[in-house]
Amino acid sequence: MSAAAPEQTAARAVDILDVDRLLGDEERLIAGTVRRFVGDRVLPEIESWYEDAVLPRELAPELGRLGLLGMHLSGYGCAGTTATGYGVACRELEAADSGLRSFVSVQGSLAMFPIWEYGSEEQKRRWLPGMAAGELVGCFGLTEPDSGSDPGSMRTSARRDGRDWVLDGRKMWITNGGLADVAVVWARTDEGVRGFLVPRGTPGFTTRDIHHKMSMRASVTSELVLDDVRLPEDAALPGVVGMRGPLSCLNEARFGIVWGAVGAARTCFETALSYARTRKQFGRPIGGFQLTQQKLVDMLVELNKAALLAFHLGQLKDAGALTPEQVSLGKLNNVREALTIARTARTILGANGVSGEYPVMRHANNLESVLTYEGTSEVHTLVLGHAVTGLRAFR
User: Is residue 144 flagged as an active site residue?
Assistant: First the structure.
């Protein structure tokens, strides 16, 4: 029996369990379309965007034309794809950079979803078509300087003044904040936590971009400042009161992370595998040494397990059966393993692993943030701990 060609071996190693064979025709089409867009439009520029700490605003309408913004929502210009199709898109986007996937996740799952799920018909018609097209950008204001893992302790408040609402507070680490035409801001009221749509340009509402980041550099991250921001009564989302609102939005976005982490891990694995096959030491490729093969196999196993987990959660979500605890398991496992894969890939590349000529260190740096945002690994661990013991380790 003849040996497989090197390119065949490499291709099979990435998806050795043939997980992509489980996808439907539409989902494979989405994967191919997004991968081509990323290859043509993003990969030639991403290193410079990362170094310059920018994500061009003009990407938004390009992503909109591909139907990627709010793609798992229906109506109002949204594509209405399956949850698994949305996940596949997130995988291909994050294979390029976590910042790109974050832009799409925040736009669709954190800004558009609450309007779609909890907004009035007037709010949906005003905002969703433009956001789906990428003509309007949204952000999600929940985290505060002193309120990260405990969003229930938020200080941002909204009080009634006649028929108006008046908002005061600060939101921190807000993706897309400096780009956003509308912010979905969550605030305490006498009735409970409520969501408010705050258009850019509203008096008292300003944003300040956060600089000097060592991670997620190809992503705009900002502080939102609300000083006596007066909004009309119909700026409030009418469909939800309480923490169920923002937490349901986070669950939507975490699902995208489960898939996106697979994309980042895949790129790191592919890079390390290619390097190991061509880099020679002691007279032969380092991929022929046992310790390097052990690293590659460990990466291969975890990558394929993560891909299977993402697909399974996608099928559960499409069936309407996905629970928050299952999403926590997916986010905890896939991001943790993706970060381990990125770090292991860096060791295979040696000193070249820290060079911008290779994507590994950029992905590793980004995944350090992904490990923390939208629920730290510790919080997801305790969510699962509560699920299995019935005992709460935190409020």
Answer: no
